[in-house]
Design goal:
Leucine-rich repeat, LRR (right-handed beta-alpha superhelix); 3 helices; single chain
Length: 295
């Protein structure tokens, strides 16, 4: 088995985990375990198979993260880890395999950003990272990936402009659809300039709305302040008026008390014309009551 170069166990009903003893197949060139029910993590020992050129683990139940040790294989030509349950991010160490031509990581649960180091794969022709949870923008370094002929970045959370290379410019809409906000020259995607203008308009509209809200709140505050001032001022005036009336009454009473009794009596007699009957009101317990006006 030490001289084995090709091992194809695909489309069986293999279960369990990939045995770590695989590291003993030091001359292995191709390993195909696709379309099984293999589970668990990919053993890091596979990264020690320095002659391995083709690895296909697609359509299994593999989980955990993609081991960065896979980048130790300098001879990769194709790496297919699609249709599994790999999580976390794409390891940038994959870019160490600079002769890689096919990379398929689709239909997993990969997240975070697309590593810009993948642009170091100058011979990469096919890239499929669709149906994951990748976010952020596609790195500008992808503009240097001139060997790319086929890409699929659909069904992610990617946004921003597509790289300006042939593979992206000529990609069908299906290869870029269902993302957060990709833009570019692909039919079905919005133009990047229109998105920038839209964002600018949204920001300008947001600023106008904020200014209007602040102005309205300022108007309400000033109105409330003015109403409070008017109420307080009116209340103070009423208090001052009441105090002035009380002071005036006190002064009138004091002025009456200060009158000379005889003079005051004479004025009463004068006002009632000597207690004429026309000023008569009635009789009370203390005597006859007259009503008259005096100055």
């Amino acid at each position: 088995m030490a001289q084995l170069q090709l091992l194809d166990l695909s489309s069986n009903n293999l279960s369990g985990e990939i045995p770590r003893e695989m590291r003993n197949l030091s001359m292995l060139l191709e390993l195909d375990l696709s379309n099984n029910v293999i589970m668990g993590n990919v053993p890091i020992e596979i990264g020690r198979l320095s002659h391995l050129t083709h690895l296909n683990l697609a359509s299994n139940n593999l989980s955990g993260s993609i081991p960065m040790q896979l980048g130790s294989c300098k001879s990769w030509l194709s790496l297919n880890l699609s249709r599994n349950k790999f999580q976390r991010s794409i390891p940038p160490e994959i870019s160490n395999t600079q002769v890689l031509e096919i990379l398929d990581l689709s239909y997993n649960i990969l997240s975070k950003n697309v590593p810009g180091e993948l642009a170091l794969l100058k011979n990469l022709q096919v890239l499929n990272i669709s149906h994951n949870n990748l976010s952020g923008s596609i790195p500008l370094t992808f503009n240097d990936m001139l060997a790319l002929t086929s890409i699929d970045v659909s069904y992610n959370e990617l946004e921003g402009p597509l790289p300006n290379v042939k593979a992206f410019n000529e990609a069908p809409f299906e290869a870029t659809q269902h993302n957060k906000g990709l833009c570019g020259n692909v039919v079905g995607l919005p133009n990047c300039n229109s998105i920038r203008n839209k964002k600018h308009n949204l920001h300008a509209r947001a600023r106008i709305i904020i200014i209007l809200i602040i102005s309205f709140l300022g108007f309400v505050f000033l109105s409330c302040t003015l109403i409070v001032v008017v109420i307080v001022n009116h209340h103070q005036r009423r208090i001052m008026k009441r105090r002035n009336n009380e002071r005036a009454n006190d002064l009138d009473f004091m002025s009456i008390l200060s009158y000379d009794g005889k003079v005051f009596y004479d004025r009463i007699v004068e006002a009632t014309e000597g207690f004429d009957s026309k000023y008569y009101v009635g009789e009370r317990a203390y005597g006859i009551v007259y009503k008259a006006k005096i100055s």
